Amino acid sequence: MTMAFKRFFGGRREMDMTQGSVIKTILVFAFPLLVGNLFQQFYNMVDTWVIGQAGLTEAFAAVGNVGPIINMVIGFFVGLSGGTGVVISQFYGAKDYKRVHDAVHTAIAVTLVMGVICTVVGVVFTPYFLNWIFRGESAEIYAYGYQYLSIYFAGIIGMMIYNMASGILRAVGDSSRPFYFLVVSSLVNVVLDFVFVFAFDMAAAGVALATIIAQFVSAFLSVLALLKNETCIKLIIKDIKICKNVLFKIIKIGFPAGLQMAITAFSNIFVQSYIAGVNGNETHILGGWNAYSKIDMFMFLPVQSIALAVTTFVGQNVGVGNYKRARQGTYKAMLLSLCITGTLIVLTMTFSEYLVRFFIDDEGIVTCGRTLLLWLSPFYILPCVNQIFAASLRGMGNSTAPMLIMLSSFVGFRQVYLYIVSSKISNELLPIAFSYPCGWFVCACTISIYFFFYKPKKNKVLDG
User: Fold this and answer.
1) N or C: which end of the chain has fewer CB within 10 A?
2) How far apart are CA 257 and CA 344, in angstroms?
3) How far apart are CA 154 and CA 115, in angstroms?
4) How far apart are CA 257 and CA 76, in angstroms?
5) Interhelix angle 22-53/57-65, nearest 10 degrees
6) 109-113 contacts: CB < 8 A, separation 24 or more?
7) pLDDT one-digit tens code per residue, 134-167
8) What is the distance of C-alpha 138 from the center of its chain?
9) With the C-alpha atoms ordered 214, 220, 222, 225, is the resulting torsion angle positive or negative?
10) Which residue has the higher pLDDT, 66 or 124?
11) For residues 108 and 290, which has the higher predicted lDDT (pLDDT)?
12) 379, 361 in Cβ contact below 8 A?
C-alpha cells in the first residue's frame, strides 16, 4: 500500500511534447483532460439535476443562472494559472529546472493570497451580483441564488488551489493525475448532493456545500501530488514565496488571459439580465436557459480540452525553438476539434428534447431549452477556431492579442448587439440568445486573420 501510494503521488509522469507524433501526443495529453472535465461538468450537472428532481423550480432557475458570477472569478484565476502553465512548460521545454522550481512556488504563494481576496470580495458583493442578474423581479429565485453563491464563495479557495496545482502538473505533461483527482471529487459531490438535498432538505445551500467540499478534496490530492513529487515541480513548503522575476512573466501571460475570461464572464451577467427581461414566463425562460447552459458546457468540453493540450504542446516546443512543430500541432488540433464538435452538434440537435427533459420535466422549461439548442447548436463550430488559435498564441507567449480580440467580440460587440436588438428590434428569447453565435463569428474571423499573419519573435518568456 505504501509503495503504491509513493508510485502514484511521487512517480514521474511528465510528457516531452517536443518529439514524436504530433497528433498522438496531443490526443494522449488531451484525453485525460476531456474525461476529467466530463466528470467535473457531470457533478455540476448533478447539482442542477438533483434540484430539478426535487421539484424546486425556482431553485433550479437560480442555481443555473448564477453561473456567470462564479465564472467571472474562476475565469480570471484560470487565466492566471494558464499563464503559469505556459511559463513552466517553456522553462521545462528548455530544461531550465531551477526556474521551473521558482515558478511552482511563486504560483502557490499567489494562489493563497488571491484565495483570501476572492473569498472576501465574493461574499461581500454577492447581493450586488444577484441584483444585476435577476433585477429583483423574483424574491424566491433571488433567495436561492444568495444561498448558493454566498456558500460557494466562502469555499472558493479549494477550487483555486486545485486549478493551480493541476495546471502545474499539466505544464510538464502530466494530465492523468488531475483527471483522477477530479473523478474522486466528482463522486464525493454526487453523494453529498443527494444527502444534503433529499436527506437534509437544504436545496440550493446543499448543492453549494457539496460542491465546495468536493473541491477541497481535489485541492488536497493535487497539493499532495506536488509535495510527494520527485521531479523539478516538487513542492517544498519552506520555499513558498513570490519570486518577482517569475511573477512578472506569469502576469505578462496570465493576466491578459485572466482579464479576458473575467470580463467576458462579467459581461455574461448582463446577458443573463437581458434573458431575465425577455417577454414571457420568467421561471420558464430562466429554467430553459439554465438547461441549455448545462448542455452548452458539454459541447465546449472537447475543444477546451484540446486547447489546453495545444497550449502545453506549443509552450514546450517554443521552449526549444521549434515553431514549425508548434504550428503543425495547432492545425492538427483544429481539425480534430472540428470533427468532434461536428459530431456533437448532430447528436445534440437529434436528442434536444430528451437532453432538456433529463434535467426537469416542466413543459415550459423544456420548450425554451429545446428551442435554444436547435437554433444555437450549429454555430458551435465557430468556438473551435477561437479556442485553438487563442491557445496556440498563449503557448507562444502572446496573451495580449487573444485578450483584445475576445474582449472586443464577446464583450464590446455582444453588448452593442444586445442593446440594439432588445430596444430596437425584438425582446424575444431567440434574438437575445443569438448574441452568442454572433460574437463567436466576429471572434473567429478576427483571430484567424491575426493568427495567419502573426510572426512570433524570439521567445521573450525565457529571457532574463
Assistant:
1) N
2) 27
3) 10
4) 7
5) 150
6) 109/240, 109/241, 109/242, 110/80, 110/164, 110/242, 110/247, 110/250, 111/77, 111/81, 111/160, 111/161, 111/164, 112/157, 112/161, 112/240
7) 655 567 777 777 888 888 888 889 988 988 888 8
8) 29
9) negative
10) 124
11) 108
12) no
Average pLDDT value over all residues in the chain? 80
Say if CB 196 and CB 202 are below 8 A apart: yes
Phi, psi torsion values for 241, nearest 5 degrees: -165, 165
Least confidently predicted of 149-153, 230-234, 394-398, 402-406: 230-234
Locus of grid cell 485572466: 258
pLDDT digits (tens, 9 = 90+) for 195-216: 887 778 777 788 889 888 998 9
**Pair 257, 91: CB distance under 8 Å:** no
How far, rounded to the nearest angstrom, does the alpha carbon of residue 285 sit from its chain's CA centroid? 24
Write down the pLDDT at residue 385.
Answer: 93
Name, in order, each residue with C-beta under 8 angstroms of 436's C-beta and a sequence gap of 6 or more: 271, 376, 379, 414
Helices (H), 231-281: 244-276
Mean of the pLDDT values across residues 65-85?
A: 74
Closest listed residue to residue 87, CA positions, set 163, 22, 172 = 172
Least confident of 3-17, 109-123, 352-366: 3-17
Q: Comparing C-alpha atoms, which of 173, 157, 158, 172 is closest to residue 221?
A: 158
What's at 164, amino acid-wise?
Answer: M
Domain extents in the chain:
20-458
pLDDT of residue 443: 93
